[in-house]
Amino acid sequence: MTGRDLRLAVVCSSNQNRSMEAHQVLNKKGFNVRSFGSGNCVKLPGPSFDKPNIYDFNTTYDQMYTDLINKDKTLYTQNGILHMLDRNRRIKQKPERFHDCFDKFDVIFTCEERVYDQVIEELAARIPTDNSKVHVINIDIQDNHEEATIGAFLILELAQLLSQSDDLDNDIDELLQDFEAKSERSLLHSIAFQ
After folding, report:
1. How far apart are CA 175 and CA 165, in angstroms?
2. 31, 113: one domain
3. How far from chain centre, in Å, is Cα 113?
4. Which regions of the chain does DSSP assign to beta strands (E)?
5. Are residues 112 and 133 in the same domain?
6. Least confident of 10-24, 26-40, 59-73
7. Number of C-beta neighbours around residue 169 at 10 A
8. Scanning 1, 77, 137, 161, which has its CA 20 to 30 A from the CA of 188?
9. Co-location of 59 and 126 in the same domain
10. Is the separation of the CB atoms in 52 and 46 below 8 Å?
11. What average pLDDT does this structure show over 135-163?
12. CA distances from 117 to 30, 67, 109, 121 (A)
């Protein structure tokens, strides 16, 4: 598997800002990518830390956008949530939950160690259908707009590096070590079977 043939997934926590930013950047560069949340619902910041806006995965981005405009357009414009939802709805209709997807991927990127553990646990609990390998790679990205953008470009750089390999299974350890040294970010890597 070489070049743009890689099937990629990006998974982050329940607000999906980081995975959707990476989805957009990878998609623009021609990668076959999907993005997911790992929680049971979508949680977006609310008027206070203890009052998030909670939506199920069947709620479209348009519905979330309209709901937040009706609740407090000024607040959700100032904190960037409406901008984020506007971007998201241009990418796809609604959020997706990783645990509900059984498609095959070559590489799954996660954006925090807790989500990495959830993905590994979910894949281990599934009965493999053809024992195809998937590389699960975590790169920690803070959950804010600036870091989401930086993280998306780091994931793109890593995806481009991986896509140039003629034998990803054989080359991946060296590629990840080189990327860690260059980016000064530590990675987690595991192989699971699908």
Report:
1. 9
2. yes
3. 13
4. 7-12, 32-37, 42-44, 53-55, 107-110, 133-139, 187-193
5. yes
6. 10-24
7. 12
8. 1
9. no
10. yes
11. 94
12. 28, 32, 12, 6
Task: Name the residue range of residue 178's domain.
Answer: 3-39+97-193
d(CA 10, CA 152): 10
Distances (CA, A) of 132 to 107, 129, 171: 11, 8, 17
pLDDT tens-digit readout, 101-129: 999 999 999 999 999 999 999 999 999 99
- Between 63-67, 73-77, 124-128, 143-147, the lowest mean confidence (pLDDT) is in 143-147
Shared domain for 102 and 85, answered yes or no, is no
Q: Are residues 134 and 52 in the same domain?
A: no
pTM for this structure? 0.93
C-beta neighbour count of 153 within 10 angstroms: 12
